[in-house]
């Protein structure tokens, strides 16, 4: 498809026609939440799970629960026009507000956009000097305040990598800028716990669920079990997960090749096998 198709507060528009109020709080102070779903054959993947997380993120910001029926209306509208779309993004902001951080009471702004997406591909990663604050007011929330991810990802791209991995303030591995991380340690595959400050990723959730059904040794790590510097400097196989990325092996860390282990390979294959199991029109 050529350019994204956009739905704004009930109106289906081409991307170049779409506009929101210049004082929308999502624009001025990043006061909003969002979700991105993969799209398979014109159908959103795990939309119900994404909408539940959208509601949790909104509650964490002190916003009213987004209208799920209205979001679904927008998703159906953009996917009805956007043939070949690979992703759909839902954004809900606090609506028009003052120039500062205070909010005005009133309606929220709803934006849904569908666009293309690259297919899953193995990824190279780097470490960066910035950390996630696991005690932040927005820790674990998927908000539109995404500037620190932009900076970290730009560092990764400038280094020839695909993703940046971040520690938290305790020095534990946390997450990527737009991905969760899995580390193969011995005969287990571990992912940082939610207490690390990482996002409760939908793909991460499905990997844990589906691996449990298959009897694979995949679990949340205990605090302190995945030390950031040890993960980066070691040889443990890694995988990244995300709604559009799906589950892919890491091929290099800070420019050094990193081999995929047997559990990483098995979980990547399991997710590919079940990639249409949670289609959610």
How would you sum up this structure, described in words?
With 281 residues, the protein is an alpha+beta fold. Helix content is 27%, strand content 29%. Strands 7, 8, 9, 10, 11, 12, 13, 14 and 15 form a nine-stranded mixed sheet that branches. Strands 2-1-6-5-3-4 form a six-stranded antiparallel sheet. Strand 11, helix 5 and strand 12 form a beta-alpha-beta unit. The chain is globular.
What features would you highlight for this structure?
27% helix; 9-stranded mixed beta sheet; 6-stranded antiparallel beta sheet; 281 residues; single chain; 7 helices; alpha+beta; 15 strands
The total of beta strands comes to: 15
Anisotropy-based shape: globular
Q: Give the ordered list of helices and strands.
A: EEHEEHHEEEHEEEEHEHEEEH
- Considering DSSP H and I runs of 4 or more, what fraction of the residues is helical? 25-40%
The amount of beta strand, in percent, is 25-35%
Taking pLDDT < 50 over at least 5 consecutive residues as the criterion, the unreliable ranges are none
């Amino acid at each position: 498809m050529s350019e994204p198709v956009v739905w704004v507060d009930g109106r289906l528009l081409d991307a170049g026609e779409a506009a929101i109020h210049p004082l929308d709080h999502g624009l001025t102070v990043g006061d909003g939440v969002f979700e991105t779903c993969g799209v398979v054959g014109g159908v959103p993947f795990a939309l119900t799970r994404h909408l539940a997380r959208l509601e949790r993120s909104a509650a964490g910001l002190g916003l009213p629960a987004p209208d799920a029926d209205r979001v679904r209306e927008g998703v159906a509208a953009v996917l009805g026009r956007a043939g070949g779309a690979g992703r759909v993004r839902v954004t809900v902001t606090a609506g028009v507000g003052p120039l500062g951080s205070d909010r005005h009471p009133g309606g929220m702004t709803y934006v849904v956009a569908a666009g293309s997406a690259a297919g899953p591909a193995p990824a190279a990663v780097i470490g960066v000097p910035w950390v996630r604050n696991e005690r932040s007011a927005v820790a674990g929330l998927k908000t539109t305040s995404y500037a620190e991810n932009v900076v970290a990802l730009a560092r990764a791209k400038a280094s020839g990598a695909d993703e940046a991995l971040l520690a938290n303030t305790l020095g534990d591995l946390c997450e990527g800028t737009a991905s969760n991380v899995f580390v193969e340690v011995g005969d287990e595959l571990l992912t940082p716990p939610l207490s690390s400050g990482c996002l409760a990723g939908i793909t991460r959730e499905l990997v844990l669920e589906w691996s449990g059904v298959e009897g694979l040794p995949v679990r949340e790590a205990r605090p302190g079990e995945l030390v950031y510097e040890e993960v980066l400097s070691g040889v443990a196989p890694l995988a990244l997960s995300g709604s559009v990325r799906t589950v892919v092996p890491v091929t290099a860390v800070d420019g050094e090749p990193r081999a995929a282990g047997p559990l990483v390979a098995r979980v990547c294959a399991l997710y590919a096998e079940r990639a249409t199991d949670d289609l959610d029109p």
